[in-house]
């Protein structure tokens, strides 16, 4: 395999870049609202189990595949399986990332609108109803919402167009530490609220009566979504990794970071939700309704609101980097001269695709397709169908198309514990990962009782 023209400048740079993808909006925006609509504690336990038993092993597999191929996702599968159905797996990932970014950029636009409102003082002295009304006005305005979405995509494209080291890695190195610091500060403040104990109980005390087949599916989908799995993002990012990178350690570190950030996001949100009697089942707008209400009630609250939406903007932007990169890399291959032009073209196409999702909260709020608003339809399709299918294809591909000797070599190279862990990892990939994904997908497609089947497996 040929070597990439661009690489991460260091092991830490690789970790920051992958962390930007994995611990962005998936953990900070999506985890709290999915947990809120899925019963809290039981969902969290399922998310934790799926992340450790399926997510991290599959993440290692994507890392191994990417570094071995030293190519973009599309080229990787075409080279290793030129006549197989698997050759389309890379394109499935590209299309899925494109769709994710089409609705993620809507959330990124919201972060810009709310950050602007908080900095200008427009959120000062509002009560809970006032915040909800203000947020509704912002996202319902087609000019404001689409304009903010366009600004968000322009910022992301501008950074990614500069390349791997000068763009993505450089931005991630200072954004990710700031994101962690702000998240710790805000979670700490939430623990001082009167409803902290009730909020923590909701998040960490499982009520198994709330578990349904949908909750299991959502937990699996969230474990994929939060680690950017099943869409070949990590294959693309790891293709820039050096042979000295400890892939198993990097994957376990990233999995741990992701769980920690999800926990902190929940701790930041749910104490305030119960203190001020908000609804944890609010859905995608939970953070925008809850956070200003929570922090406006405590000392220095307006400062904290500004800090939160800076945090949120950083999380959104760091996620957008990797989503853009996989699409761009698929089209430029190794020709860096095309990067700038392709970056702006892709951003424009994403904006056009994302307009119906943007308008789902305004002009198209009464337009439903398959019983869902367009925004929810894209989110559901990506998280619960396309990502699990992609994850299944990748896991099976690793086992049937890549020689075990190659997997062993890449797994062990640069790793402190590679020799001891390879057998464990390979066994998980054979016995657990594809089986569990298949069971949940069959349930989704044919309505089988996934709970009883998973009970037998685990």
UniProtKB/TrEMBL annotation:
Q: Which GO terms describe its cellular component?
A: membrane
Q: What is the annotated signal peptide range for this record?
A: none
**Which keywords accompany this UniProt record?**
Membrane, Symport, Transmembrane, Transmembrane helix, Transport
GO molecular function ontology, one term from the record = symporter activity
What transmembrane ranges does the database entry give? 12-29, 41-65, 86-113, 143-164, 176-196, 216-237, 249-274, 303-332, 344-365, 377-400, 421-442
Q: Which Pfam families match?
A: SNF
Spell out the subcellular localization from the entry.
Membrane
Please give, as recorded in its UniProt entry, the membrane topology of this protein. Multi-pass membrane protein
Q: Which family does it belong to?
A: Belongs to the sodium:neurotransmitter symporter (SNF) (TC 2.A.22) family.
Please give the name of this protein: Transporter
């Amino acid at each position: 395999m040929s070597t990439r023209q661009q690489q991460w400048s260091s092991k830490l740079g690789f970790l920051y870049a992958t962390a930007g993808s994995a611990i962005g909006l998936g953990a900070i925006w999506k985890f709290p609202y999915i947990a809120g609509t899925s019963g809290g504690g039981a969902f969290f336990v399922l998310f934790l189990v799926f992340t450790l038993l399926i997510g991290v092993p599959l993440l290692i597999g994507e890392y191994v595949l990417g570094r071995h191929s030293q190519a973009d996702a599309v080229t990787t599968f075409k080279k290793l399986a030129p006549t197989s159905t698997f050759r389309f797996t890379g394109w499935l990932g590209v299309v899925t990332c494109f769709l994710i970014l089409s609705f993620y950029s809507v959330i990124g636009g919201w972060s810009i609108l709310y950050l602007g409102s908080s900095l200008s003082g427009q959120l000062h002295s509002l009560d809970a109803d006032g915040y909800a009304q203000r947020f509704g006005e912002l996202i319902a305005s087609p000019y404001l919402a689409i304009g903010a979405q366009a600004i968000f995509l322009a910022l992301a494209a501008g950074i990614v167009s500069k390349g791997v080291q000068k763009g993505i890695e450089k931005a991630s190195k200072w954004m990710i530490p700031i994101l962690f610091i702000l998240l710790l500060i805000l979670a700490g403040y939430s623990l001082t609220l009167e409803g902290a104990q009730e909020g923590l109980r909701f998040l960490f005390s499982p009520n198994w009566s709330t578990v349904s087949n949908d909750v299991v599916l959502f937990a699996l989908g969230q474990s994929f979504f939060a680690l950017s799995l099943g869409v070949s993002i990590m294959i693309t990012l790891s293709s820039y990794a050096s042979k000295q990178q400890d892939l198993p350690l990097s994957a376990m570190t990233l999995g741990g970071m992701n769980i920690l950030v999800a926990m902190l996001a929940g701790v930041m949100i749910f104490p305030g939700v119960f203190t001020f009697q908000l609804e944890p089942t609010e859905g995608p707008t939970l953070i925008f309704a809850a956070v200003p209400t929570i922090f406006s009630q405590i000392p220095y609250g307006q400062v904290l609101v500004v800090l939160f939406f800076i945090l949120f903007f950083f999380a959104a932007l760091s996620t957008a980097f990797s989503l853009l990169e996989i699409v761009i890399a698929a089209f430029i291959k190794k020709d860096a001269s095309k990067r700038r032009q392709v970056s702006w073209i892709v951003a424009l196409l994403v904006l056009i695709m994302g307009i119906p999702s943007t308008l789902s909260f305004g002009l198209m709020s009464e337009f439903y397709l398959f019983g869902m608003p367009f925004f929810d339809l894209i989110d559901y399709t990506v998280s619960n169908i396309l990502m699990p299918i992609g994850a299944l294809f990748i896991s099976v591909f690793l086992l049937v198309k890549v020689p075990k000797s190659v997997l062993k070599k890449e797994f062990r190279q640069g790793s402190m514990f590679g020799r001891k862990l390879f057998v464990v990892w390979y066994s998980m990939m054979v016995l657990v990962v594809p089986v569990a994904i298949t069971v949940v997908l069959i349930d989704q497609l044919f309505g089988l009782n996934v709970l009883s089947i998973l009970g037998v497996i685990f």
